[in-house]
């Protein structure tokens, strides 16, 4: 980012965004392409916006630079935005599901995409040791101040899972993580590799609309987040030796007052 002229980049990005909001999508696409030339790491998420408009190829995931920048910018007000404004309550849904199936506490929890620690707070008392991982340093700093984790790491989720740590967890959760990933193969493989046999994996996803092609696995939606088909998630879980316990339709959050459909998934590493 040091070699990028911030003013020039900001001007190019704002021009592209303005064209998109005016409905001049072809011109906006050209403008976003110029943004990507200025900033190949894509801190502003130009590639995601192109895919959202249907004028660019769907990436395998949201760019790391974009995700870390996005959440760094909102870290201090993240809880109030997500919970109060967007009606987000997935961590408590996870607690309810786990309580339904498991009466004893878990030994070690790994919270992928832990953010400010909302899941750790919701799962208080359900695991003896909690480890949090997030790509955003700002988010991890807020979580650290809450003192809800024994261990915290700044890392992209798949990269962390591929480190082949000696530690294996008996509970891994990933709430509001999959909407920033398209292709889930590496992620699910990494979770399986780091989860004890019979360990539990709980996560949320946003679901493709019923009007989507039956063969489509995932796409970027109107709010620059990935939605996945139910069949695709089931297929990837099966390929990674997960036994599905529950896959319940939920409302993940609200965008502009409209419910965002998704699934809450609970499965076991068999």
Compile the SSE list and pairings.
Blueprint: H1 6-21, H2 25-38, H3 46-53, H4 64-74, H5 78-85, H6 90-101, E1 106-112, H7 118-122, E2 127-134, H8 137-146, E3 151-154, H9 157-161, E4 169-174, H10 185-194, E5 195-206, E6 218-220, E7 226-228, H11 230-239, E8 242-255, E9 258-269
Parallel strand pairs: 1-2, 1-4, 2-3, 4-5
Antiparallel strand pairs: 5-9, 6-7, 8-9
The secondary-structure class comes to alpha/beta
**Which percent range fits the helix content?**
40-55%
How are strands sequenced across the largest beta sheet? 3-2-1-4-5-9-8
Order of helices and strands: HHHHHHEHEHEHEHEEEHEE
Shape, please? globular
> Terminal Cα separation, in Å?
43 Å
Mean pLDDT: 92
Number of helices: 11
What would you report as the Rg, rounded to the nearest angstrom?
A: 19 Å
**Biggest pleated-sheet summary:** 7 strands, mixed
Low-pLDDT residue spans: none
Question: How much of the sequence is in beta strands?
Answer: 25-35%
What's the total number of strands?
9
């Amino acid at each position: 980012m040091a070699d990028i002229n911030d003013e020039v980049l900001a001007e190019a990005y704002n021009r592209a965004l303005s064209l998109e909001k005016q409905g001049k999508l072809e011109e906006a696409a050209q403008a976003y392409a110029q943004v990507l030339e200025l900033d190949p790491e894509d801190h502003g998420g130009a590639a995601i916006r192109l895919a959202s408009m249907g004028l660019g190829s769907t990436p395998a995931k949201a760019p790391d630079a974009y995700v870390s920048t996005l959440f760094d910018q909102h870290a201090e007000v993240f809880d109030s935005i997500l919970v109060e404004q967007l009606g987000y309550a997935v961590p408590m849904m996870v607690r309810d599901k786990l309580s339904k199936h498991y009466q004893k506490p878990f030994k070690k929890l790994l919270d992928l995409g832990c953010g400010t620690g909302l899941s750790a707070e919701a799962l208080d008392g359900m695991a003896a040791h909690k480890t949090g991982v997030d790509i955003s340093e700002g988010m991890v700093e807020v979580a650290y101040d809450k003192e809800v984790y024994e261990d915290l790491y700044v890392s992209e989720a798949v990269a962390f899972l591929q480190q082949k740590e000696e530690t294996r967890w008996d509970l891994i959760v990933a709430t509001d993580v999959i909407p920033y990933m398209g292709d889930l193969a590496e992620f699910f493989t990494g979770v399986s590799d780091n989860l004890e046999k019979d360990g539990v994996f709980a996560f949320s996803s946003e679901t493709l609309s019923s009007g989507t092609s039956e063969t489509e696995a995932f796409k970027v939606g109107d709010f620059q987040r990935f939605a996945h088909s139910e069949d695709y998630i089931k297929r990837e879980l099966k390929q990674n030796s997960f036994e599905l316990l529950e896959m319940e339709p939920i409302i993940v959050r609200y965008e502009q007052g409209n419910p965002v459909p998704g699934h809450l998934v609970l499965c076991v590493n068999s």
